[in-house]
Design brief:
14 helices; Rossmann fold; 5-stranded parallel β-sheet; alpha/beta; 380 residues; 2 domains; Glycerate kinase, domain 2
Amino acid sequence: MKILIAPDSFKETLTSSAAANAIEKGFLDILPDVDICKLPIADGGEGTVDVLVSSTKGKFFLTKVSGPLGKYVDAKWGMLGDSKIAVIEIAEACGLHLIPPNNRNPMRTSSFGVGELLLAAMDEGADHIIIGLGGSATNDGGLGFLEAIGIRFLDSKGNELTEGLASLNKLFDIDIDSMDSRLKNVSFEIACDVDNPLTGDQGASAIFGTQKGADNLMIKKLDSLLSHYARIVSSKLSNDVSMQPGAGAAGGMGYGFLAFLKAQQKSGIHIILEKLNFNQYLLNTDLVVTGEGRFDNQSDRGKAPMGVINFSKRYNCNIFVIAGSVENDKASEIKYGIDKVFSVTSNEVSIEEAMASPIDSLIATARKAAKYYKKYYLDL
């Protein structure tokens, strides 16, 4: 029999690869003769580069780029194996984790480093670039990364804006012809699972500004600046995508990719499973085991395990979910059509205990899952 183990990361405890190894160990302890295939996954955010590059036997790169506050950071990205496809996580260059909470101010942060990563990818011959949006410290509408790839943002006197987002109220014209010419031959996919527009009550500033350090007054200013920015861009490009779902992703970086680079927007897990040829792994598979840190009523909103579950149903595989914590296992099984949901935490294992030794806790839970499968699904 064949088992496919395809978990997402257990946030703040285990990477998807470490989780897959632990689940494999637990199953082999109970079912030593089964054929196990491990395929760690991600949802387009953290871990996307590691998953796609490792699974395709590609190549990792470490590039020094401008961080969100201008200080250089080492950003990891990669090229998929046997292809000219690059994959980049924007958080590597301008992530919220790069700025201490007491120093966060979206009026001062820039996505410039993301543009430098695009240039580095093209230097390596990339003709298709996957962008993992999410976790950004910026709210500049992509202004910074667009400047890095050569686009010039001008005031009424033809001078370039020099103060980034803070000077967007002076934006009068845009020189697109100065953009790096190689970009004409590069296609883009953005992994995005939020549907926020660029501006307005549900826009980038209003919904995500607070976590990036903005107070209510700053949020209003940010939204006003991005609204002016969108008007000038729409006039210049004769195309308004500012209200398109996803334009507000990553502080409006989604807007920059959609408007200037004609990026295709897809669910992050859809991109991951597509690039990994996930369907091929499901052929002749008896059981699929997926999982994440918490499985709840938000899990069907673009999260990785639901992508695995939905694909696996097409092949009539049995489906188990192992999660750090589960909101309601019986309800989840019924709602999502899962055969069985297992929680690492329980009356016997507290969250604190599970977090203290996550690998051992996950192995123990995987053993329980394997025993259940052996008892109820196998004629052994």
